Amino acid sequence: MTDLAYTPEEEEFRARLREWLAQALPALPAKPPPDDWPGRRAYDLGWQRMLYDAGYGEVHWDASPTVRLIFLEETERAGAPYVGANFVGLLHAGPTIAAEGTAEQRARWLPPILRGEQVWCQGFSEPDAGSDLAALRTRAYRDGDCYVVTGSKIWTSHAEVADWCELLVRTDPAAPRHRGISWLALPMDAEGVTVRPLRTLAGSAEFAEVFLDEVRVPVANRVGAENDGWRVTMVTLSFERGTAFAGEVVACRRVLAELARTARGNGRWDDPALRRRLGRLDAEFRALWRLTQWNVSEAEASGGVPGVGASVFKLRYSHARQELYDTAAEVLGPDRLDLDRPWVLDRLNALAYTIAAGTSQIQRTIVAERILGLPRGR
Ligand SMILES: Cc1cc2nc3c(=O)[nH]c(=O)nc-3n(C[C@H](O)[C@H](O)[C@H](O)COP(=O)(O)OP(=O)(O)OC[C@H]3O[C@@H](n4cnc5c(N)ncnc54)[C@H](O)[C@@H]3O)c2cc1C
Questions:
Q1: 67 CA → ligand 1 middle, Å
Q2: CB of 338 within 8 A of CB of 282?
Q3: Which candidate in 14, 34, 123, 269 could, as Cys together with 263 as Cys, close a disulfide (CB 3.0–4.6 Å)?
Q4: pLDDT tens digits for 247-271?
Q5: Where is each Acyl-CoA dehydrogenase/oxidase C-terminal domain found (predicted)?
């Protein structure tokens, strides 16, 4: 196992960042309400622009995984905004293009993401292809220098406010399922793209169905070789399950500390069962942070792409997050169960964590087969 130790340069990076955050954060405008997606887009892109102007815009791709981790740790600790509406651009599509794109593609798509000018969404899941993503049927056939794409996607987060979509299509229906897929960059304003928002139980239209009707996408928008999209997708998913949630662990530890303080103030602390639960969660989030560091050092040793340890992290983190917000309900009491309170929304959102980016069942299968070496299921 590789051990993570910070170098003097990395500690210096941390100190400079901390100083910058202290003077930059008070200048931020007020945060828009959770369901104002155009407002959130503007706010999140504005924050990315501030990072870019200060020299931190590229930290998600150009910095080493360790520096990225320090960045996430410090921004969370300071209460800075997270990547928000451009989660996909900054943490999935961007790193994938950086790792797999040509020099031309990198020059075309990465700077607008870094400057906070463009938002990306992820068009992977389909109504009959979620856990079994390789069953996807959205079809793309070649016509000159374009693909003509027809099909539909679902659960496409932030599609309504996105400029681009990282889109998985089937380019060879005759090939074995995993070998006939390609990864395309789809402009969301292309003719034939229709976005129909879906509302969550918390009332937010944060994702959508996307319908594609004979949409022409230039062949130059394909990242990776034709029919090699499954391999490119595995790179995207390793970023999604690996380092993309890392900053949130720090945020959860902050919430936990606040809960312990609240429990001391409102008398709930006298309950030994609650104290045990808070203590166990504290141990869990500490362990998750160590696991993140371990995953990052492994990624560092293997060229920057997180490995299967990402699935262990995703599995444990998503369940710990749900338990954290259940515990919050216990500490705060039923009279605080009000949808206007941010932590109630956080609890509802936590429900999605064991589904999004691959369900817990799927992560367990990955851990069983690829880490524990158990026999493959049929
Ligand atoms: C908040 C949120 C945001 C999302 N954002 C996006 C996005 O931006 N882009 C995108 O493409 N997708 C997105 N998704 C979709 C997400 O990736 C899928 O929901 C997920 O992969 C599960 O697929 P499914 O919903 O089709 O469920 P299914 O695959 O139909 O699974 C249903 C149930 O069966 C279980 N199951 C299925 N197969 C197996 C198996 N082989 N072994 C054991 N159990 C199994 C699952 O674990 C699950 O409990 C998002 C989802 C959520 C909740």
A1: 31
A2: no
A3: 269
A4: 788 888 888 999 999 999 999 999 9
A5: 227-372
pLDDT of residue 2: 46
Which residues sit opposite 126 in a β-bridge?
129
More confident residue, 151 or 375: 151
What is the DSSP secondary-structure string of 191-212?
TTEEEEEE--TTS---EEEEEE
Give the residue numbers marked as catalytic: 240
CATH 1.25.40 correct for 8-114: no
CA 350 – CA 88 distance, rounded (Å): 18
**Residues 6 or more apart in contact with residue 322 via CB below 8 angstroms:** 347, 350, 351, 353, 354
- With respect to CATH, is domain 242-371 assigned 3.40.50.720? no
Residues with CB under 6 A from ligand 1: 121-125, 130-131, 155-157, 207, 352, 355-356, 358-359, 361-362, 365
Q: Ligand 1 centroid vs 270 CA: distance in angstroms?
A: 40
Which residue puts its alpha carbon closest to atom 41 of ligand 1? 362
Which fold does the domain 120-227 belong to in CATH? Butyryl-CoA Dehydrogenase, subunit A; domain 2 (2.40.110)
Q: Which of 261, 251, 238 is nearest to 324 (CA)?
A: 251
pLDDT on residue 1: 42
Domain ranges of the chain: 8-114, 120-227, 242-371
Q: pLDDT (tens digit, 9 = 90+) per residue, 23-70? A: 999 999 999 988 899 999 999 999 999 999 999 988 877 677 788 888
Q: Extract the tokens encoding 297.
A: 């050092």
Residue 125 CA to ligand 1 centre (angstroms): 8
Residue 157 CA, ligand 1 centroid: distance in Å: 13
Mutational test site, ligand 1, from 88, 239, 355, 360, max ligand atoms within 8 Å of CB? 355
Distance between CA atoms of residues 116 and 46, nearest Å: 6
